[in-house]
Amino acid sequence: MSSPRRAAKANAKASTKMAPAAVAPSRPAAKPKFEVVDGASAEATRLAAVLERGVIDGKLDLLTADALQRLIAAACRVYTARVEAGEQLMPVPKNCISATDVMVTASGLLRAADLAVFELGMWQSWTGR
């Protein structure tokens, strides 16, 4: 009769020799890197591509100032609602835009809400965000 440790080792060795399909747990299919989207997400994706192309081509007037402001405001509201609902979501993917893009936009958003950087820092310390 073998010791419990020796029996456990023998069982472990035997299970590794079995066919992989017999021991591999079933895993859900890997999520595709880029999802197929429709509806508002598809429209937003198409609009983002058009705007990016416009910046590259120097066509900065593809949207009126009013349309751009409404778009940014709506994106801010949706992002805030999702974060407040508990979703862990960054507003843009990492390394997607430059530090200058972030600083110019953040400064503009703070001015639009009549806030100072100090107030942002205080709010962050209070909320932990």
Defining traits:
0% strand
Structure, explained:
The chain is built from 6 helices and no strands. About 9% of the residues have low confidence. With 129 residues, the protein is mostly helical. It has 2 domains: 54 residues, no CATH class; 38 residues, no CATH class.
Order of helices and strands, N to C?
A: HHHHHH
- How does the overall form come out from the CA principal axes? globular
Instruction: Provide the β-strand percentage band.
Output: under 5%
Share of residues in helices: 55-70%
Largest sheet: none
Helix-strand makeup class: mainly alpha
Which quaternary structure do these chains form? single chain
> Which parts are unreliable, with pLDDT below 50 for 5 consecutive residues or more?
14-25
Alpha-carbon Rg, integer: 26 Å
What is the distance, rounded to the nearest whole angstrom, between the alpha carbons of the first and last residues? 61 Å
* Total strands: 0
Mean pLDDT across the residues is: 81
Count of separate DSSP helical elements: 6
User: How many discrete domains?
Assistant: 2
